[in-house]
Amino acid sequence: CPRDGGACPCRVSSVLNRDVKQFGKKHMFDASEETCWNSDQGTCQWVTLDFPRTVKVSQLHIQFQGGFSSRLCTLEGCRAGEELVKISDLYPEDTHAMQISFATFQVEETVLDKLKITFENSTDFFGRIVVYHLGVLGERL
């Protein structure tokens, strides 16, 4: 997906105080270390990516704010017109520090048109998730 998120539609579960300008989903793809997507509070925050073409996913890069990450991320995916199916569970690390933690996960190569990442268990007491960077590596088919 392009860094501006324009050609790869993305949806998120929530945005902190509905302040899309400051905390919106586009900030996960802008390659800036100053901006981020910040969810509102609540359990099971999520991000979905609808790829414009079928892709084979091999890696997922997530950069969280320490203290606002997820202990468990569930990956689901599907081909166009199909129901989401579980691909794998990921267990990011959280340092509970105010610096950014970066995680790269190898995922079993999966062919799909849609990817959903559910943040099952936030390290934040209120369930907020803060993501500075989200990248999906693989190849277009």
TrEMBL record:
Gene behind this protein: Nr2c2ap
Annotated InterPro entries: Galactose-bd-like_sf (IPR008979)
In the record, what lineage is assigned to the organism producing the protein? Eukaryota, Metazoa, Chordata, Craniata, Vertebrata
Which keywords annotate this record? Answer: Nucleus
Q: Which organism is it from?
A: Uria aalge (Common mure)
Q: What protein name does the entry list?
A: Nuclear receptor 2C2-associated protein
Record-level GO cellular component terms: nucleus
**Which family is this protein grouped under?**
Belongs to the NR2C2AP family.
On the tree of life, the source organism's domain of life is Eukaryota
The reply to whether Protein biosynthesis figures as a keyword in the UniProt entry is no
Principal localization? Answer: nucleus
**Where does the protein end up?**
Nucleus
